[in-house]
Design a protein that fits this description.
The chain is α/β, with parallel strands linked by helices. The chain contains eight helices and 15 strands. It has one domain: 4-Layer Sandwich (Purple Acid Phosphatase, chain A, domain 2), CATH 3.60.21. The structure holds fe (ii) ion.
Length: about 350
């Protein structure tokens, strides 16, 4: 599956900018025409290794990309907070995306690994942001540029950044559904004090009706054996005090109902945002196998002072040092056998979970 690419135009531009013979200051890095390398994965590819992660500051140590590169994965999935943009100035957001995109460690990785992804709040443009962020349309374009989404892809003109990708051959199909949990998200009212940062929005929504209709279609009419459903914020955990789908109980129930009524084959939820990693597991009465969630965060910084938090759905332990995620898929037995791994700096295996369907 691993493929190599010719030295890309952006890299050549960068190398030429760093010529030691140049007396004058190097010109600023300009974005080259998209090469679509991030999307260059044949749809017939049978995936066996996916890497994933979130919470990546473009101005922090990027050493972890060398470890991720060594995984030789078929696909990388960004789970949000892919940069820390945090601005309504699109020139600022763009320059931060370019800083990440052309960081040498990440650039080596992205030139040989197909990449897809979705945003969370910081790359969207505002901490804990919602539908009221005024630059969301422009920000969506910058995210898609960063991901090298082709200029003619439908998401380029779509309202909202949600996307779906299917890979594999009959009987070994994987669908990746990337939910946009920011563009249409209703407001949350902040608590003045206490562990819970926000008051639940009992009637509030996260996806918006157009995205709900799209998601129902993606789940109902699917030939895939495994469905990865990604959202920046966590979907299963209910108790912690930060952002989560559980702050919108009606939307969370709707999502879980949709998984059950669509009878989707092997739904696997993916999330980031938390600066910790954990596995969660939920039984749905009408679904024959449990729903797992792999929360993977963070790549460049983590919740070092973490001292514990409740999650009745958790399987295993919380990892709170810098880490990335690996999902291994073994198709040899007919039914896909999946293993989740959390890996740290130096590629150390921090925790592993073989899914028990
Ligand atoms: Fe976040």
């Amino acid at each position: 599956m691993k493929r190599s690419y010719l030295l890309s135009l952006p890299l050549l531009l960068l190398l030429s900018c760093h010529s030691p013979t140049a007396d004058k200051p190097a010109p600023p890095v300009e974005e080259a025409p998209p090469l679509f390398i991030g999307q260059n994965l044949p749809l017939s590819s049978v995936l066996t290794t996916i890497t994933l992660g979130s919470c990546n500051r473009q101005d922090r140590d990027q050493k972890i990309w060398g470890e991720i590169d060594d995984e030789e994965s078929d696909l990388w999935i960004w789970l949000g907070d892919n940069i820390y943009g945090d601005s309504e100035d699109m020139e600022v957001l763009k320059s931060k995306y370019l800083q990440q995109k052309y960081h040498p460690a990440y650039q080596v990785f992205r030139e040989k690994t197909p990449i897809i992804g979705i945003w969370d709040d910081h790359d969207y443009g505002v901490n804990d942001g919602d539908k009221n962020y005024p630059k969301k349309k422009e920000s969506q374009g910058l995210m898609l540029d960063f991901l090298d989404v082709p200029l003619n892809a439908p998401v380029r003109t779509q309202v909202g950044g949600f996307q779906s990708y299917s890979f594999g051959t009959p009987g070994k199909m994987v669908k990746v559904i990337l939910l946009d949990a920011r563009y249409f998200r209703d407001e949350l009212e902040r608590n003045a004090t206490g562990y819970q940062r926000y008051k639940p929005n009992a009637e509030g929504d996260i996806l918006g009706e157009a995205q709900w209709a799209w998601l129902e279609e993606e789940l109902t009419n699917s030939d895939a054996q495994v469905h990865f459903i990604a959202s920046g914020i966590q979907m299963i955990p209910e108790e912690h005090g930060f952002e989560k789908w559980a702050n919108f109980p009606k939307a969370r129930a709707r999502l879980l109902d949709l998984l059950a009524t669509s009878q989707v084959s092997y739904p696997i939820l993916l999330s980031g945002d938390r600066h910790i990693s954990e596995f969660s597991r939920l039984e749905l009465p009408t679904l024959s196998h449990p729903v797992y969630e792999f929360t993977s965060s963070g790549l460049t910084h983590s919740y070092d002072s973490f001292s514990g938090e409740p999650n009745k759905h958790r399987v295993g332990e919380v990892v709170f040092q810098r880490n990335y995620g690996v999902i291994k898929m073994d198709w040899s037995a007919g039914v896909p056998a999946l293993t989740f791994q959390m890996k740290g700096l130096n590629g150390d295996l921090l925790q592993e979970l073989a899914l028990n369907f």
